[in-house]
Amino acid sequence: MAVRHGVLSLVLLAVVLVVRVESGKNWALVVAGAKDYNNYFSQACSCHAYDTLRNNSIPKENIVYMSYDDVANDPENPVKGNIVNVAGGPNLYPGCKADYRKEEVTPEVFLKVLTGDKEGVKKLIGRDGKVIASGPDDHVFVYMIDHGGPGIFCFPGFVPLHNTDLNNAFKQMHREKRYKEMVVYLEACESGSMFEGILPKDIDIYAISSANAHESGWMCCYDTFRQVYVGSYFGNGWAYNTDTANLHKETLYQQYELMKKACNASGTVSHPTQYGNLSMNSEVLAQYQAKAEGYQPGVCVSTLEEVDNTLRSEFSFADIDLNNPAIDMVPIATAARRLIESRDLSGEKREELKAELRHMMLVKEKAESLTKDLVKAALFSPRGLTERDILAGKERVFNSECYKTALSLFSARCPGIDMGKYPFARRNLQAFINLCNHQPQTDVMNAILEVTEKYGICRAL
Question: Looking at the whole model, is its pTM more than 0.70?
Answer without folding.
Answer: yes
